[in-house]
Amino acid sequence: MSAEGYLALSPESLPRRLGGLAILRERVGPPETWQVKEVGDGNLNLVFIVTGSAGQAVVKQALPYVRLVGESWPLPLRRAFFEYNALIRQEARDPGSVPAVWHFDEGQAIVVMEFLTPHVILRQALIAGRRVAGLGERLGEFCARTLFRGSDLSMPAPARKADLALFAANVELCDITENLVFSDPYFAAPLNRHTPGLDGIVARLRGDLSLKVAAQHLKLAFTSRAETLLHGDLHTGSIMVTDTETRVIDPEFATYGPFGFDIGMLIANFLMAHFSQPGHESAPGQRADHQDWLLGIVETLWQSFTTEFSHLWRTERRGILYQASLYEDQGHALAAEQALDDLLGRIWQDMLGFCGIEMHRRILGLAHNADFERIADEGRRAACEARALAMGRQLMLGAGSIRGIGTVTAMARRMD
Ligand code: ADP
Ligand code: MG
Ligand code: MG
Ligand code: MG
């Protein structure tokens, strides 16, 4: 898409430019009553909350560059197109999991959607020590439903190939993942930064030849194994919650990739939340219960994912893979169960690797986590980050010999 005619919105211009949209007049009220606030706290885009006499809406607009870095790093507007297309698929595959999309303007790179309220970003809630009922179950279901239903296990082949082609054009956002996640942490890339106390560990990681080979095996999986439609950026900053509800936002990195990618990223972010907790304590041990709760989320998330994925496997396996004609229809339900178990085992191993690498890139690369960044004392922060780095390495190198989620959480506990 060319940027011709594109103009970035401002709180001042928004009512004039979008005031004619019937859906906004209906849901928000007449534009004369609108109050507009820019709230984007993300790395890339503009996000406005529009409040009027009848209600509220969110207006998200892509900028022609990376917001975090500035105009020196151009980034195409069409990421809004991928975000829109991912949101409507996620809604179809797991109804109620994402904000309802009300309008899409491709030329202006604008998605108008439901304002989630009183939701807050999960990462902020975790830093504050808050809990969310049903969090792990819900996120496990979201991963299972979107990943299963976006794949050849479920979709008609023509539709799935059309989607593969559509999302294959999300080149620039994939390029960010390919560089920032899979390569930058392991050399002195210009945009990297890390907490000063970590110099020794960083040097050891960059000198670890097996680790650098493992990282590129994972990158090969990401770039070549187009197994299903990924969210692509599923961290705790892409999740909004109340005390009892969980919603997923911001799928602009959507692309076809390995089943294990989204879950690995997500579990990494819960593990980092766990490792960061001591940095937020005013007395030692104060956050121990919260740490236990976070590791419980990790376990529940994986269990919920496998339970729901298995359910879909047994009830909705209508795609071109592992057809019932080969198994159940011949009275070989056992073969279907064997194939399911084998596939889940492969997803598990991939998941562990992606989980490990996400922990490295969030501590060594460009995009850091507030969980650690909010720890003002550099010595305390470095101590928390060092545990996450060590665990990340172990997950990447030990993926083949770690047998269950209880082992992962036991490892995290022992690194306390
Ligand atoms: P970016 O792609 O720039 O990271 P996000 O989609 O993550 O943008 O949105 C940035 C912030 O805007 C979120 O952290 C959240 O606070 C707010 N936000 C985004 N979408 C919604 C929504 N539908 N309802 C409420 N707040 C939202
Ligand atoms: Mg975001
Ligand atoms: Mg984003
Ligand atoms: Mg503990």
Can you characterise this structure?
Helix 10 runs antiparallel to helix 11 and helix 12 packs antiparallel against helix 14. Strand 4 and strand 5 form a beta hairpin. The chain folds into 2 domains: 101 residues, Phosphorylase Kinase, domain 1 (2-Layer Sandwich); 295 residues, Aminoglycoside phosphotransferase (APH), C-terminal lobe (Aminoglycoside 3'-phosphotransferase, Chain: A, domain 2). The protein is globular, with a radius of gyration of 22 Å. The protein has 416 residues and is α+β, with helices and mostly antiparallel strands. Strands 1-2-3-7-6 form a 5-stranded antiparallel sheet, with helices on both faces. A 3-stranded antiparallel sheet has the order 8-10-11. One magnesium ion binds next to loops. Homodimer.
> What percentage of amino acids are in beta strands?
5-15%
Please give the order of strands in the largest beta sheet: 1-2-3-7-6
* Fraction of helical residues: 40-55%
Shape: globular
Number of DSSP-assigned strands: 12
The name of the CATH topology of the largest domain is: Aminoglycoside 3'-phosphotransferase, Chain: A, domain 2
- Looking at the overall shape, the CATH architecture of the largest domain is Alpha-Beta Complex
Overall mean pLDDT stands at 97
Bound molecules: adenosine-5'-diphosphate, magnesium ion
In terms of quaternary structure, what is this? single chain
